[in-house]
Amino acid sequence: MTVTVCYPYYRNPGILRLHLETWAAYPPEVLDRLCFTIVDDGSPEPAEPIIRAARIGNLAARLGGSGAISLFRVEVDKPWAWDCARNIAMHHAQDGWCLITDIDHLLTAENAARLVYTKLKPGRFYTPSRRRAVDGEPYKPHPNSFVIERSLFWDAGGYNEDFTGVYGKDSVWNRQLDAVGKRRTWSELELLLFGREVIADASTSTLGRKGSEYDVAAHSELSALKKVAHLIKPTNPLRLPYHRVL
Fold this sequence. Notes:
By secondary structure, this protein is of the alpha/beta class. The protein has one domain (3-234): Alpha-Beta Complex (Spore Coat Polysaccharide Biosynthesis Protein SpsA, Chain A). 28% of the residues lie in helices and 23% in strands. It contains 8 helices and 10 strands. The strands form 2 sheets. It has a 6-stranded mixed sheet with strand order 8-4-1-2-3-10, with helices on both faces. A 4-stranded mixed sheet has the order 5-9-6-7. Strand 6 (124-132) and strand 7 form a beta hairpin.
């Protein structure tokens, strides 16, 4: 099967280069079963020149608009808008299975092979395990990494873009998913987590998180909505303007 791997990108040129180098080194038979969708979330350091410069290995002939990598760019720089970026990625993903995760999570060649050759069951979604790159130690599962069918993603309504701009909203999506599909832990599929102590731009460092002005708890209306949002299927996805780059 062909699996679409989806990543949002925001000011992450260093870790993006590592992804490209890693993908280029996949065995051709594995790479042939994968495509990659990156959504640049209005980043001041755009992803486009990094991808265009990566004329390397097996990806060299595939980096154009119809190749293995698709790139979209949100036209506004709105804080914590990864939910919109993920919706855009899944809107343009191929039908079938997708891996959707954060850009600080690397899919190694061994795990890419496991992803494309494992027979998965419709109606289920899978949460992978992960390991820290800094010391090789196992780490707790990521609350926002999933292997999921595109159709099931949209059965759940996609990410609720009412929460765009705030931090601390993963639980809303998880409850949406649990309402429509069967959750399974896929411990054999492992993502490699890069902290900023290994690659400085592996994750967002320029926006506040818990306890900041962006914390959902600091917004009473959204904090109240968070408790019941999973009971209401989200509407009006793809709210932010965007365009295809590659």
